[in-house]
Amino acid sequence: MEILKNAERMLKKYALCDDCLGRQFALLGYGMENKTRGYSIKLVLAMQAHEKALNGNKRAISLLKKLVLNGNFQTAKVLLEKLDVKPDGEKPFKCYLCENKFEEIENLAKKAVEKMKGWEYETFLVGITLPKEIMEREDEFKSEFEVTYGESLKNHFSREIGKKIAKLTGKEADLKNPHIVVLVNPFTERVKVQVNPLFISGRYRKLVRNIPQSKWICTKCQGKGCERCNWTGKMYPESVAEIISTPVLEMTEGKTTAFHAAGREDVDARMLGLGRPFVIEVKKPKKRFIDLKELESRINDFGSGKVEVLNLNFALREDVERIKKGEGTQKVYRVLVELENEVSDGELEKLERILTGCKISQQTPIRVLHRRADLTREKYIYETKVKKLTPKIIEMQIRCQGGLYIKELITGDMGRTKPNVSELLKTRATPISLDVLDVVM
Ligand SMILES: [Zn+2]
Ligand SMILES: [Zn+2]
How many structural domains are present in the chain? Predict the structure, then answer.
């Protein structure tokens, strides 16, 4: 009976529509709408009052009058007529909490659907913004009547509008990873659309040297354009990210992209083998259900022997984090090394042995000191294979922890990397070319 008593107190004081009355008891009962809850409560209150009124109870009459005035409840009106009682005048009904905005749900949903046209989506989420005074009014109401099983007005609106949109479009509401978020203010009737980015993961191969992974702003002009950069604002005319991004933007009709990769190779190193994992994030894509096989071949055409992609898949935002934490991964490098003096096969075998299952202590290389903190890190080499190509040129294949600087492992970087190849072979060793063969996540 607590429900009825409390509902009666509410209705005696405030005008409440079926939705808003029912919402105060939303957590009681299951599988019905708040509107049904509210209507049912009003109905039972009216029936009880009818019984009492038939037995001559005057207070019951006044409750019936309240149900007409504050509850907009037509049954109570009919009962009063049958009891030959005149209602207390008439005034237009306006719900204290929602100001009758639940009657606008259908219109709001139609407006939202209209705004979402032009974007491809399968899943959506309805966000609700409410005027401050409406939220404050609801809070005060809840504490006045000690509402403990209620639902918020925001949730209620969001669900009801969501149901209508789903019905109108056949799309699904998704709280976690919606393609599109539609923000509705039921009071101002303003509707705004936020399109979530599209994520595509894959691996890239960089088949030639001297292409940076991402756009490298000209250091002389900071991107404004100068003679040095041939008025492009860039240090290099193209990058892996730009080459991949162009066909992606063409097919998705997105606005911009952000390129996230598991580490990066030096500009003059190739990325071969199975490629390096990346995720490309497309902002505001008009199309998101694209054929990834076609995208792959378009990128590979566009990259024309310089950049290739493979293993394209649709991904999630979480995958970006996962890929950025790729420092813990293993890398396989192939490096050609020139030696100042010839060394014996025995010494090369010894080099292979020492640099297998070995910890390298590496102080930040001099060449990157201007942009990285000066720290000493320990990185592990799992395996090294050494092959003599000519008397003074050897090929090394190194499988190591991500983050080890290979060029410095060869030269020693003035003693900042220890042990190193120069020191172990007791002759100056210089890297001629570097390729990344694999990045193992
Ligand atoms: Zn209401
Ligand atoms: Zn420049």
Answer: 4
pLDDT by residue (tens digit) across 31-45? 999 999 999 999 999
Tens of pLDDT, residue by residue over 283-315, are 999 999 999 999 999 999 999 899 999 999 999
Q: Are residues 307 and 380 in the same domain?
A: no
CA of 169 to the centre of ligand 1 (A): 26
Ligand nearest to the CA of 105: 1
Shared-domain flag, residues 224 and 315: yes
CA of 43 to the centre of ligand 1 (A): 17
Span 131-149, average pLDDT: 95
Residues 6 or more apart whose Cβ sits within 8 Å of residue 324: 260, 262
Contact 96, 153 (CB under 8 A): no
The DSSP output letter for 8 is H
pLDDT bucket at 424, cuts 50 / 70 / 90 = very high
| Active-site residue, from 174, 266, 345, 438 | 266
Which CATH number goes with the domain that contains 168?
3.30.2130.30
User: What average pLDDT does range 65-85 have in this prediction?
Assistant: 92
320 and 335 in a single domain? The answer is no
Percent of the chain with pLDDT over 70: 99
Question: Amino acid identity, residue 6?
Answer: N
Q: How far is the CA of 237 from the centre of ligand 2 (A)?
A: 11
Q: In this structure, which ligand is nearest to the CA of 99? A: 1
If asked whether residues 172 and 255 sit together in one domain, one would say: no
pLDDT score recorded for residue 327: 54
CA of 23 to the centre of ligand 1 (A): 9
Query: For residue 397, is it left (φ>0), alpha (ψ between -120 and 50) or beta?
Result: beta
| pLDDT-based confidence at residue 23 (cuts at 50, 70, 90) | very high
| E strand or H helix at 251 | helix 240-252
Which ligand minimizes its atom distance to the CA of 157? 1
Shared domain for 261 and 306, answered yes or no, is yes
Whether 293 maps to a domain, the answer reads: yes
Burial class (CB in 10 A: 0-12, 13-18, 19+), 290: buried
Q: Say if residue 213 is in the same domain as residue 290.
A: yes
266 among known catalytic residues: yes
Structure pTM? 0.78
